[in-house]
Design goal:
The complex is a heterodimer of chains A (about 350) and B (about 150). Chain A has helices at about 40-55, 75-85, 90-95, 130-145, 180, 185-195, 225-255, 260-275, 280-295, 305-315, 315-325, 330-345, and strands at about 20-30, 65-70, 100, 110, 120-125, 150, 155, 170-175, 200, 215-220. Chain A has about 350 residues and is of the alpha+beta class. Chain A folds into two domains: about 20-250, Glutamine synthetase/guanido kinase, catalytic domain (Creatine Kinase, Chain A, domain 2, 2-Layer Sandwich); about 260-345. In chain A, the strands form two sheets. Chain A has an eight-stranded antiparallel β-sheet with strand order 2-3-4-5-1-8-10-9, with helices on one face. In chain A, strands 6-7 form a two-stranded antiparallel ribbon. Chain B is mostly helical. Chain B has a two-stranded antiparallel sheet. In chain B, a hairpin with a 2-residue loop joins β1 and β2 (about 5-10). In chain B, α7 (about 110-125) runs antiparallel to α8 (about 130-145). The longest helix of chain B is centred in the C-terminal third of the chain and has 17 residues, at about 110-125. The relative contact order of chain B is 0.08. Classes of the chains: A alpha+beta (about 350), B mainly alpha (about 150). At the A-B interface, α2, α3, α4, β6 and β7 of A face β2, α1, α6, α7 and α8 of B. The structure holds zinc ion (ZN) (2 copies). One zinc ion (ZN) binds next to loops of chain B.
Chain lengths: ~350, ~150
C-alpha cells in the first residue's frame, strides 16, 4: 500500500484551523441497472467493481489514482485507511467484494460497494466547504460521463438507505472544541445541532465519542434543498456560530481560570514529553489540551503542525506501519509514548 | 475496558470491536425509530404493503424493516407509499428532489411535471391547514422554478 506514516494533510494555516481540523463533502451514488449492494449477487458485485475500477482508474478523474482491493488488503492496512478517514469502519469490516480508489494526494477517495455502489469524498484541512464541494461535483460529473446513475426526478439520486435520497450529499467538518468541553457547554451545541437536523459524532464515528474533544458535524437533510443551500446553511449560518462559541469559551477560560488552564496545558505537555506508556485515548486527550494551549499562546515553542500530525500517528495501525510489525496493546502503548516523547521534545 | 497490570487497556477503534462494545451507530438516522412512526401512520394498510414485493428484486417492506436498506432502485416505486412517509419524516417534511440532476443524455426530466405535482401537494396541505408542510413545499417549488432546466445547462 502506498500510504505513508506522516499523513498528507494537516495544515496549521488552513482557514479556521484553530477550531476546524478538516472538512469533507461526500456523495452517495448507485449505478443504474444493478440491485443495491446488500441485494446484489457476488457476480453483480464483481461487475460493479470492474466497471468502477475501469472508470475511476481510466484517467480524467484525478491525478495518480490508485486502487486498493479490500479483501486482499491486510487488517492493518484496512485500519490504516480508516484512521486516515479514507474508508468507513463499515467498509473496512464488511466481507463483500469491495475496494477503494484513492487519488495521489489522498484528497479524493471513492469507496466501491460500501452501502451504496459509490461513495465519493473529498477531504481538505480547515473550513473549505465550497472548495471540497466544487471538487466532488467535478468528480461526480466526470464519473457520470461513463456511468448511468440510478436517479428519479422525484427522489433524486437513489440510495440503498432511503433516508439519503435527494442530493445524496453530506458535508461534514471535524471540529476541535476543547473549551466548550471544559466549560460544559458542549451539550448545548449537541442539542442545538439536533434541532437543526445535524448529526454530531466523534473522531471515528459514534464509537469514539469526543476522543480528543473532536466532534464531527454533518447535515442529515439531503432532500428538498439544493447542494448549495445545504452547504451554505452549514458554512454561513451554523458553523460560524459554533466557532464563535468555542472562541468565546476559550477567552473566558483565559480571563477567569487562567491558572487552571495553564496547569492543564503544561501538565499535558509534561506528560507527553516524559510518559513511557500511552493509550490512544489518553494521548488524544493530552494532545487536545496541548493544541488548545498553543492556540491560546499559553504554550510556547511547540510546533502545531507536529501536534496535529500526532493525532494521526498515534493511532494503532499508523504505529504498526511506523514500527514495521504487529504489536500487542502493551507494545503499542510503549511505541506510542516513544514517538510522542521524541516528537514533543524536539520543540 | 479492562484493567491489566494496573493500567487501563486501550479502547480499540475498529468496527467489529465497537460493535462488540455496543457503541456503533450507522451513518444515517436510525431506521428503526423512523419505522416505528411509519408503522403507526400506516397501521391499516400495513399488512398489504408489508407483503408487496418489488418485481425487480423481490424485496418487501418487511425485509426493509429488518435491514434498513432497500433492494434496488425500483423498490422506490414498489414501496412508494410507506417510503414517502418515512422519507418525509427523515427529511423534515421534504417530498421532492430539488438539487443536481445528471446531465447525461437518456435521463429526461420533466421539471414542469414535478412542479405541477408540488402545486397540487401545496393545495392539499393548505386546505388541511398543514402550514409548516405547505411552507416546505412552497420553498421547493421556488427552488425548482429558479433552476435552469437541465437542457439549458453546460
Ligand atoms: Zn444506510
Ligand atoms: Zn427492488
Amino acid at each position: 500500500m502506498e500510504l505513508n506514516y506522516h499523513g498528507p494533510w494537516t495544515e496549521s494555516d488552513a482557514p479556521h484551523s484553530d477550531v476546524i481540523m478538516s472538512c469533507r463533502a461526500r456523495v452517495a451514488r448507485n449505478i443504474a441497472g444493478f440491485p443495491f449492494v446488500n441485494k446484489a449477487s457476488e457476480r453483480q458485485l464483481q461487475e460493479i467493481l470492474n466497471i468502477s475500477r475501469q472508470v475511476l482508474l481510466g484517467g480524467g478523474i484525478s491525478e495518480g489514482m490508485f486502487w486498493i482491493d479490500l479483501p486482499q488488503a491486510t487488517a492493518r492496512d484496512r485500519h490504516l485507511l480508516v484512521e486516515r478517514h479514507l474508508i468507513s469502519k463499515h467498509h473496512a469490516a464488511s466481507n463483500l467484494r469491495r475496494g477503494v480508489a484513492i487519488s495521489g494526494d489522498e484528497a479524493l477517495s471513492i469507496m466501491v460497494n460500501e452501502e451504496d455502489h459509490l461513495r465519493m469524498q473529498i477531504l481538505a484541512p480547515g473550513l473549505r466547504l465550497s472548495h471540497v464541494h466544487r471538487l466532488i461535483d467535478e468528480v461526480d460529473d466526470a464519473v457520470e460521463k461513463s456511468v448511468d446513475y440510478a436517479f428519479s426526478p422525484r427522489w433524486g439520486y437513489l440510495t440503498a438507505c432511503p433516508t439519503n435520497v435527494g442530493t445524496g450529499i453530506r458535508f461534514s467538518v471535524m471540529m476541535h472544541l476543547p473549551a466548550l468541553k471544559i466549560t460544559n457547554e458542549i451539550d448545548r451545541v449537541r442539542r442545538a445541532a439536533k434541532d437543526l437536523h445535524l448529526a454530531v459524532r466523534g473522531y471515528y464515528g459514534e464509537g469514539s465519542e469526543s476522543a480528543g474533544d473532536f466532534y464531527q458535524i454533518s447535515n442529515q437533510i439531503t432532500l428538498g434543498r439544493t447542494e448549495d443551500e445545504l452547504r451554505m446553511e452549514l458554512e454561513e449560518a451554523i458553523l460560524p456560530r459554533i466557532i464563535d462559541y468555542e472562541l468565546k469559551a476559550r477567552k473566558i477560560l483565559i480571563e477567569r481560570s487562567c491558572s487552571l488552564l495553564d496547569d492543564r496545558t503544561h501538565r499535558a505537555l509534561g506528560i507527553l514529553r516524559s510518559a513511557r506508556l500511552l493509550g490512544t485515548e489518553e494521548a488524544m486527550k493530552l494532545l487536545s489540551r496541548v493544541r488548545l494551549g498553543v492556540h491560546l499562546e499559553r504554550l510556547k515553542n511547540v510546533d502545531l503542525e507536529k501536534v496535529n500530525r500526532l493525532f494521526l500517528q498515534i493511532q494503532p495501525a499508523h504505529l504498526k506501519l511506523h514500527i514495521g510489525r504487529e504489536m500487542d496493546s502493551d507494545e503499542l502503548r510503549a511505541a506510542r509514548a516513544d514517538i510522542v516523547r521524541q516528537t514533543m521534545n524536539q520543540g | 475496558m479492562t484493567v491489566k497490570n494496573g493500567i487501563k487497556k486501550e479502547v480499540h477503534l475498529c468496527h467489529e470491536h465497537a460493535i462488540d462494545a455496543g457503541i456503533d451507530l450507522p451513518e444515517h438516522q436510525p431506521i428503526s425509530k423512523l419505522l416505528a412512526q411509519v408503522t403507526v401512520s400506516h397501521a391499516k394498510s400495513r399488512s398489504r404493503s408489508e407483503q408487496r414485493r418489488c418485481p425487480e428484486c423481490g424485496f418487501s417492506f418487511a425485509e426493509f424493516r429488518k435491514s434498513g436498506t432497500l433492494g434496488c432502485p425500483e423498490c422506490f416505486n414498489t414501496l412508494e407509499k410507506p417510503l414517502t412517509t418515512l422519507i418525509e419524516r427523515a427529511q423534515n417534511g421534504a417530498t421532492h428532489h430539488t438539487g443536481k440532476t445528471p446531465k447525461r443524455a437518456g435521463v429526461s426530466l420533466d421539471r414542469q411535471l414535478i412542479i405541477q405535482k408540488l402545486v397540487k401537494d401545496l393545495d392539499c396541505a393548505v386546505s388541511a391547514e398543514q402550514y409548516e408542510r405547505a411552507a416546505t413545499i412552497r420553498d421547493q417549488i421556488h427552488t425548482l422554478e429558479i433552476i435552469t432546466p437541465p437542457d439549458d445547462r453546460n
